[in-house]
Design a protein that fits this description.
It contains two helices and nine strands, in the order H-H-E-E-E-E-E-E-E-E-E. The protein is of the alpha+beta class. The chain has one domain: Beta Barrel (Lipocalin), CATH 2.40.128. The longest helix is centred in the N-terminal third of the chain and has 21 residues.
Length: 131
Amino acid sequence: MSNTIRLFFILVAAVFAVPALAQTLSPQEVMLAKKWKLAYYEAEGERIDPTPDQRNDVMDIRKDRTVVSIESGGTQHGTWTYEDGRKELVVVDSASKDRMGLRVAALDSANCTLEFKDPDGVLLRMHLVPF
């Protein structure tokens, strides 16, 4: 009887351990996984301060690999992955399934700089600070 109970607990522990292992984040992902607020944009070397509508823009990158983006009062939900070799944060919108690759140009506990090209091919940098 005790072997059966022991086996049961081992199986239960294994079932719960597998999802926990799948959610393991790299050190870079741990730094990314927080709520970030827009500080300013940069385009062609020029600083662009947020408009009044953008001052409350937030990107909430969560440890469960979901993301909530609040831009100009609108909210989008999605999932994210991080490709360390390319230093790329990939966000997939839950509703539209659109995929956006953002290069992580700088990342530490006090700031995150994400780069992407707009539809006209202009390189934009989003400078984010912890919320």
